[in-house]
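Quick question, first post here. What does this chain look like in 3D?
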Amino acid sequence: MAGFQALGIGMIVSMLAHPIFLATPALIVLDPGRLWGDGLAGPALAGLAVFNLAFGYAAMAMLAGRALALRRRDGLAAYVWLLPVYWLLMGVACLTAIRDLFLRPHGWNKTPHLGNGR
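> Answer (accepted):
Ran it through. Tokens below.
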């Protein structure tokens, strides 16, 4: 049960943390010393943060591309590089859900379905 709870909480935390991780390179470009100071450690940590973000995305893209190839869905591989946008939107959805949990605990955001009226 503890493993299941850790997995569930980990997914929520990762959805909330991803927009912060995505904003880090922008903050580094705008003002590198603001995050970690002006010493030698600042540029090193900034480089490490950008490296981790870039190679994390690349590793996930390669993993997703390989999974698509194994399932013979190679046509979708071109969209793998949109995963960071998807993860960012998942962060927005998670923040919206948390807001609604506190402001409208019994509300239900139902997805409108288009179709033939069934």
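The chain has a mean pLDDT of 83.
The radius of gyration is 19 Å.
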